[in-house]
Specification:
Helices cover about 40% and strands about 15% of the residues. By secondary structure, the chain is α/β, with parallel strands linked by helices. The protein has two domains: about 160 residues, 3-Layer(aba) Sandwich (Rossmann fold), CATH 3.40.50; about 100 residues, Adenine-specific Methyltransferase, Domain 2 (Adenine-specific Methyltransferase, domain 2, Orthogonal Bundle), CATH 1.10.1020. Helix 3 crosses helix 5. It starts with about 20 loop residues before the first helix and ends with a strand.
């Protein structure tokens, strides 16, 4: 079954996301199969690959409730979200940003507009919360909340083809069946290839999570699920995956670091199974 909506391909995502996969969608899309049943993505983030492929049937998940709620709002009521974003655009300033950041609206639509506003005007599009679960990224340099090339109606149409789930990744990986396409992009750091990888990642995605993901992907592989995953270019990942999966070394440029010395070409692993 050809699950790709050819007319709707190559749409950019509406969120900027640390670790986002626009580079994968633009430079490595040839690795993705032309035919599959459902498209399943358990760490959807900014959704770069989903919006690029525009599958006719998808399951998108993430542990981040605010993120899934925002996708749901765009899916069901994008016009109202844009209306509120326009108000944010008119009022945007240093003080206004921090006022919006400190208050969480009771309405789902208002929360979605807040999420997009903060994403587009915070520092480098980062999503970070404190121990109380409060968004705490400082204001960035960008002042544009709504761009001329935004197409919320198109994003809404694409999301109508998707089931949205807020959950742990393992639930969605376990749901994948034979000939489904599973794209898996867990949180990981790739700003360097030194041994700090595992220690740093304990705050994002623990090594136990990495092992749990690996075993879930092994089970999915045995069920005939088509798998494309990304992960850090690190010896520990190579040792974990190399006997069961095909590993490709991919290079891409990263410009998100506040330190210019880290804005350079970095490597990641692309992990494949049952492709072709």
């Amino acid at each position: 079954m050809d699950n790709m909506n050819i007319e709707g391909r190559q749409a950019k995502p509406f969120l900027k996301w640390a670790g986002g996969k626009r580079w994968l969608a633009s430079s490595y899309i040839h690795l993705f199969p032309e035919t599959y049943e459902r498209y399943i993505e358990p760490f959807v983030g900014g959704g770069a690959v989903f919006f690029h492929l525009s599958p006719s049937e998808a399951v998108l998940g993430d542990i981040n409730q605010e993120l899934i709620e925002t996708y749901s709002a765009i899916k069901t009521n994008w016009r109202k979200v844009v209306e509120i974003l326009s108000r944010h655009q008119k009022k945007h300033s240093h003080d206004y940003y921090y006022r919006v950041r400190s208050l969480v609206p009771s309405s789902k639509i208002e929360r979605a507009a807040r999420f997009i506003y903060l994403n587009r005007t915070c520092w480098n599009g980062l999503y970070r919360v404190n121990l109380s679960g409060e968004f705490n990224v400082p204001i960035g340099t960008k002042t544009t909340v709504i761009s001329d090339d935004d197409d919320f109606e198109s994003w809404s149409k694409k999301l109508r083809q998707a089931k949205l789930i807020q959950s742990d990744f393992e639930i969605l990986v376990n749901e994948a069946k034979k000939n489904d396409l599973l794209f898996v992009d867990p949180p990981y750091t790739v700003t360097h290839n030194f041994n700090g990888f595992i220690k740093y990642n304990e705050r994002l995605f623990s090594w136990q999570d990495q092992e749990r993901l690996f075993h879930a992907l092994c089970r999915a592989k045995s069920r005939g699920v088509k798998i494309i995953a990304t992960n850090a270019f690190h010896e520990s990942i190579c040792l974990l995956y190399s006997k069961k999966f095909e590993l490709i070394e991919a290079k891409r440029f990263s410009g998100i670091s506040g330190d210019s010395s880290y804005r350079k070409s970095i490597e990641e692993y692309i992990i494949l199974a049952n492709i072709g």
